[in-house]
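Milestone 3.1: sequence recovery, worked example.
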């Protein structure tokens, strides 16, 4: 079903870049403004200049972050900062990290994947996207004609594809080895054996792919392909725009970690904040956890423990501006069925993010779909301390603390052709950007 092939990737030249940690970054959509500035200052060839260039007051149609990215990309290729491989490869990637005081290694395959519309059921999304983000990313692709960052996708590894790749690659020293700012160790190996390429291609034809992270980039790649088809007389089934750069990870990988994506809201009227708990009590059993400045950290840990122990019951943590209280909301029995009946598919009703979006945001707070689509009004964090801290200075008004979505829920929802609310998952760690670039020109 899925078409997965090797390619001649573009990589940073190790003779020119001695420390790869100086030039690689996380994906553009998790980089803060402060981090963006820091990456720009770190190294003149940092990938940030290609994926998230700085804006200036003099930006114009002919001189802007996208046109400057295209100029840098061309310059780095001409100067040998970036080199294209001579033979097609599959690229095995590993990331070693610590979570809950335990060392974990996650493996992934970086390859090209044939683009397919979602309705064909070969490559499946699980989250909604922001329309404005897609248009901005499309402008970048039109300027640069390259995939700078792979889409993170999942598959059922029934044919033990990654084991075959690891057996072939791990006997050799990695072609890239670095430790990033977070202390995560990233390694990369080229796999050039054509027999392995064919085995992977055949095995992947028997599976479907589930997009974990990078929905915007995938939908943008589809739009870019259509744009090329309409504007390039040489477009055919062999054109590079028929494929997109992907990082493929097995759902069975022990390193498959999903963190919650906590929500932090701004521009909530004080009247709504003051009435929130009273309204919530119509749908939830509410427990308050008071704290002082000295006991706040302990109270937050109590909230997190309560969330975890009540996970099967749809539990949500709440922190309101101006209150020295955390609230634990536990959904009352049959509320979702009684409220939404058949208007929400059964696979979506048990999700905490569905309860939060439909019942809390839309019913209690009165959000419209337009409000939900405005990424400037909703922030996300995988760190509960950070989410709560954003409310304190008044930058945001309410923080909602969640349990993580489970991998089997992602598989079920995507497998039924359904879509979760935006940012329902936070796969950790993010796939690093800049290890391998995919050119989209013949």
């Amino acid at each position: 079903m899925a078409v997965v092939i090797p390619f001649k990737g573009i990589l940073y030249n190790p003779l020119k870049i001695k420390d790869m940690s100086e030039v690689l970054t996380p994906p553009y959509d998790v980089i803060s403004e402060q981090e963006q500035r820091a990456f720009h200052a770190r190294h003149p060839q940092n990938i940030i200049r290609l994926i998230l260039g700085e804006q200036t007051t003099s930006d114009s149609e002919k001189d802007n972050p996208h046109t400057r990215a295209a100029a840098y990309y061309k310059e780095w290729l001409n100067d040998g900062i970036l080199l294209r491989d001579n033979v097609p490869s599959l690229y095995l990637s590993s990331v070693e990290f610590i979570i809950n005081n335990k060392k974990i290694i996650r493996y992934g395959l970086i390859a090209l994947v044939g683009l397919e519309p979602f309705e064909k059921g070969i490559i499946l999304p699980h989250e909604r996207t922001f329309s404005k983000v897609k248009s901005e990313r499309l402008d970048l692709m039109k300027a640069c004609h390259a995939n700078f960052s792979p889409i993170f996708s999942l598959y059922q590894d029934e044919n033990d594809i990654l084991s075959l790749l690891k057996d072939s690659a791990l006997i050799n020293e990695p072609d890239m080895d670095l430790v990033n700012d977070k202390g995560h160790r990233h390694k990369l190996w080229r796999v050039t054996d054509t027999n392995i390429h064919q085995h992977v291609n055949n095995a992947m034809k028997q599976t479907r792919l589930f997009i974990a992270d990078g929905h915007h980039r995938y939908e943008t790649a589809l739009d870019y392909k259509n744009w090329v088809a309409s504007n390039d007389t040489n477009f055919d089934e062999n054109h590079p725009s028929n494929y997109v750069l992907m990082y493929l990870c097995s759902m069975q990988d022990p390193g498959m970690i999903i963190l919650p994506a906590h929500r932090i809201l701004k521009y909530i009227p004080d009247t709504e904040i003051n009435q929130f708990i009273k309204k919530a009590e119509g749908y939830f059993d509410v427990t308050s956890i008071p704290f002082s400045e000295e006991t706040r950290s302990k109270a937050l840990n109590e909230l997190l423990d309560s969330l975890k122990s009540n996970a099967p019951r749809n539990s949500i943590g709440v922190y309101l501006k101006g209150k020295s209280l955390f609230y634990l909301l536990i959904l009352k029995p049959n509320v979702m069925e009684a409220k939404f009946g058949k208007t929400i598919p059964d696979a979506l009703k048990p999700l905490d993010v569905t309860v939060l979006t439909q019942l809390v945001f839309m019913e209690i707070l009165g959000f419209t779909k337009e409000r939900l689509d405005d990424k400037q009004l909703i922030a996300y964090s995988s760190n509960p301390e950070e989410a709560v801290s954003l409310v304190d200075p008044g930058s945001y008004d309410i923080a909602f603390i969640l349990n993580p979505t489970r991998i089997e829920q992602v598989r079920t929802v995507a497998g039924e052709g359904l879509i979760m609310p935006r940012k329902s998952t936070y796969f950790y760690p993010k796939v690093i950007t800049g290890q391998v670039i995919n050119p989209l020109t013949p």
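The chain has 14 helices and 21 strands. The chain has two domains: 4-257+429-439, 261-403.
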